[in-house]
Amino acid sequence: MTLYTARKVYNPLATKLGAGRPTSGHLIRFSLVGDAGGSAAQRDSHFSIYGDDPDIAAISQFPDAAWDPAQPDVGAMHGITWITMADLHHDATGHEPIAAVVCVGDVVFLNITLSSTIKHIVRLDGEDLNGVTVLVMSLLNHFPTLREVCWADDVTRAGRDRADWSTITNKCKIRDVTMVFGGQRYDQSIPGDELALGALGLVGGSDDPNRRRRMTGKRLMKYKAGGAALAERQMPYGWCHKKDKHGRSVQEGNRGLVPEAQPEMAAVYASLYQAHADDETYQDITARLAAYEAEGLIVRRDHTDLDNTFARTLGDDNASYGAAKSFFCRSDSNPRVIPSDLDIARYLEGEDPAEVFDADVRFFIAKVELVRTGRYFRRLNNDIRGRNIVLDGIPATYRDDLDEYGYFDVISAPWEWPTDDQGNEIPRFGVPDRVCRQVAARLLRELRAPKAPTGGQAHHAPTRRALQCFTSWLTAPGTLGAKYDDEATQWGVQARVNNSGRANLVLLFRRQSAGEGSRYERGWSYFGSGETKPDHIDATFSLTELEASVAHHLDRGVQQLLDPSSIAHLTEAQHRSDDPDPTATWRHQITLKLSDKKPLEDEAKGHRTMAAISAGAGDEAEARAYATQAAEVAAKVVALDADIARLEAKISKHESGTPSLRHDRADVSVAVHLVAGLESAARNNGESPAKFGTLCDETFIDWRFHVDGEDVVWSCTALLPLATGGHAQLPLTGRIRNVRARTGKSLATTDTVVRYLFEEGRDLTATADLLQVTRETLLKKRVMPWLVANGVTARGAKCALVDHPIPEVRRELHRWVTRAADGSTQPSTSAYTERLRSTYTDPDLSWGDAAVPDDTAWIADAIRLLTADTATRRHGLPVLDVALALGKSEHEIRELVKPQRRSAGFTRPVYLAYANQAKTHVKAVPCPHGRCRGRRFAAHVSLLPEVAASGYGVICSHCRRTPAQDGAWPVTQFPSAYLGRWTSTGGSGSLREAPRTIRSPR
Ligand SMILES: [Zn+2]
Fold first, then answer.
1. Where do the domains of the chain lie?
2. What's the CA-to-centroid distance between 973 and ligand 1, angstroms?
3. CA of 916 to the centre of ligand 1 (A)
4. pLDDT tens-digit series, residues 838-870
5. DSSP readout, 256-322?
6. Residue 239 pLDDT > 50, yes or no?
7. What pLDDT, on a 0 to 100 scale, did the predictor assign at position 289?
8. For residue 589, how far is its CA from the centre of ligand 1 (angstroms)?
9. Ligand 1 mean position to 930 CA, how many Å?
C-alpha cells in the first residue's frame, strides 16, 4: 500500500478532503495559527466578495464556533473537518489543527491558519515545503473537477514565496483553472491575464531590501543625472528617448535612457503656453493640440490607451479638458497645501520656486518648470522599508509618522532644450520665462478655483461650484434670444475662471446644426466651420452673483408659498403647458455619469496592463504604483455607480409620485437650506461642499439665460419636494450683470447697484463684495447720487437707509421710487409705508450718520430693570437707583425722559416716563393703544428714524406701535422685523468702511 493516492495526495489528507466533486475552490488564509479574530475577519471579507454564490452564502451562515478548532464537534455539525500538519505529508509533524475544510454544493471551502512563507515541512530528500502550498496543490490535485480557485483579496493570501507562487499558477494554467483574486478573474489562457498575474505575483513577493536598494538607488541616480528613466510614452511632451541611426534608444552611462528634445515641438510649446497663459479654455487648447497632431508635430502620449489621439476628444468637454491639462501638469498629484496668492505672486515676480513653494507644489508644476529651466523635479517612491533611509545622499521624505517607506525628491541635471536648423539652442522651446510662470500660476490658482470643465467633472472633489449643471437649450427663429433666421439657436453655459481666480460663466450660442456631433452633442469648443469662440460668447457673468441672485429669488418665492393666499401660485406652476420633466435632467445626469464611467474603466484596465508590463520589465516599484492607481480608479467607478443608482431611484420615485398636488405643501426646509447654502457659496467664490452641489443639480433645472441690455436675465425651475412625495415646481427668474458688456474693470451700473442694494434688499457690504468694489466707491459713485436723484436728500436719511438693518425698508423705498417712475397705479399703502416715505424724503430730517446712531444697549437694560415685576412697572424706580445700577449719571437717566434739544445733530427721542409728580422716579412708557392700555408698556427700544419721528425711541412689543397718540401714530404699526435689537458700533468710524449699526448684544 502506498502513502499517496493516484493524484499524489497524502492519504490522510485525501480522506479528509472527501469524495465531493466541487467546481469552485475557495481559500482564505490567515498567517497566525489559532488567531480566531484575524481568521474571522478574512472570512467576512471573503463572504462579502463572493456572497452572491448560494453555496458561499450558505457557508457564511455558519456560526463562528464552527470555525473554532477547540470545538470540533460544532464544526462537525456543519460538515467541517479539521486538518493537521501531519495530514499533509509523510515528513510533516504536528497534530494541531491548521485548516478547516468543508464541501457545500459546488464549493470546497478551505480555512487555513498558516504562514505562507515558513517552510513547515522539513524534507531530507528535497526542498523544504510550505504547508499552505502543499495544501493548495493537494486541493488542486484531489479535485479534478475544479474550474476556479478564489481568494479574498491579494495574492499574498495565495503565496508569498516566488517559487511556491509559480508552482500554484503553473498548476492552474496547466489544469485550465481560473484564479480569482478579490473577484477579479485571471484566465491564463488569455495572454494579458497571464502577464497581469505574473505582475501580481511580484507585488506579493517577499521583500528583498538589498535588491530593492540597488534598484531604487539606480533609478534615483538616473533621475539625478538627467536620465529619462521612463518609457518614452510617459515622458513630458517635447522630449523623447535619444536614438541611434537605427532608431534604437541609446543608453548612456549612469543616465540610462537619455532625453532628447524635439525641435518641432518648439512651435507647439510657444503656442500652447501662450494660449494657456491667456486663459484659453482647456477645450480650446485641445483643439490646438489636435491641429498640431494633424500636422504630425505631436503624438498623444496616453499610457492607458495607446491609440488615443487629441482629435478623438474633440466635442467631449471632459475628455478634451483632461487631454489638454495633462500637457501642463501631472494629473495624479495635488499638493496638500495650496500656495497662497502672495506666494504665487512672488513666483510670478521671478523668485526661485525652491524659495517660495514646498516640495509638493514644485512637484505639481514640475512639467512647466522643466520647460522653463530644463531641470525636472521628480519624485521616486521609496521601496525600502524603514525610516531615515538615505540613498545617494538624498534622504527619504516621510508623509507622516506611520509612513515606513516615504519618497525621494530629486531635481535633475538639465535636460537639453531643442536646437534650431543652425544648431543653436532654443531655450525654453522659445517660450518666455514670464509666460512659463504665468502657466504655472494658472495651474496653481485652478487648484483653488473649480476645475469643472463644463460643469460635471468634479464628482470626487470635496468642494465644487454650487451651480454648475446647465444643460443646453434651443431657441426657435423669431423667438426671444434667436440669433439666426434660418435655424434654431443652441445656447449653453460654460464655466470660466478669470485671471484673478474669480469664478465666471460664459453664455455661448451657435447654430443648432453646429452642435450636432456624429454620436453625441458636440462640446462647446466648436461653433461651426470657420467660426471662432469669441464671436459666440453672448455674455460673461459672475457665478457668485448668480448664486446670490438665485438665493434671493428662491427665498422670496418660498415666502410667497408660505402665504396662504398664494398657494395657487404653486399649483398653477404644476400645469404650465411647457412643464419641464425633471426626470429628463436626471436622465441626462445618468448619461453623463455613464460616459464618465467608461473611460475610468478603460483607465483601470490600462493601469493593470501597465503594471504587468512594468513588472515584466523588472520594475516592481512601478508595477506597484500602477496597481495602486488601478484600485483608486476602481473606487471612482464604484462612486459613479452609486450616484447612478441614486438618480435612478429618484426617477422611479418621481414617476410613482401622486399627481394630485392641490392640497400639498412644499418642504420649505429644503428651500431654507438651499438659500443658506447658495448665500454661503456666493461668499466663497461660488464653491460649496460637493454634496450641496448635487442637491442644487437636482433642484434647479431648465436653466435659461438671455442678455438684456447690460444685464443677463436668468430663469430656472426649482423642484421642491412635496410633503406627500413628488415635487412642486417653482419658477424663478432674476437679473445679474453681464460683465462682458462692460469694458475693463469698470464699476457696476447704478441699475445693478440699486437692484442688489434696494430692490433685493442686500446690505451694503454684501453688495460691495458681489460687485468687487469697496463700500466707499459704491456709496460715493452710485448709491448717494441715486438717493439724491430720487428725493432722499437729508444726510441722516441717506446714511440711515444704506445702514438700515431691515432689508424691507430699502425694498419699500425702491418700490415707491420705481412706482413713481413707471407711473403705474398706486397700490394701497399702509400708515407704516407712508411713515417711511415721509421720514426719508423729509429734506429737513435731522439724524445721525447711521441707522442707529447711539448706543442703545444700556437703555434696553434700563427698561428691563423697570419692567422686572408688576410693582416696578407700576411705580417705577428712583432715578438714582437706576443710575447706580447702570453706572450712569442721574442726568443721563433723566435725559431718557426729557431729551435735550440740540442745535446741531439730532434730538434724541423719549424712552422713559416719570413715575410721579415729583419726578424722583422713572418708569417704562405705558402703551396707550387699544387693548394694551393699562396693561402693557412700550418696552422695546428702537432707535430708527421712522420710529423716532414719533418723539419716542420705543415701541410696544405687543402691538408694535409707539406710544405717540397724535396724527397717524395710533394706526402706524411697525412690521415684526422691528422687534430686532440693534445698537451703534460706537466710537469713530465711517459708513464708508463698515456698517455702523450692529445687532445689540442685549
Ligand atoms: Zn401696545
1. 11-204, 265-448, 454-465+542-745, 747-845, 857-999
2. 10
3. 22
4. 999 999 898 988 999 999 999 999 999 999 888
5. EE-EEE-TTHHHHHHHHHHHHHTT--HHHHHHHHHHHHHTTS-----TT-TT--SGGGTT-HHHHHH
6. yes
7. 92
8. 56
9. 7
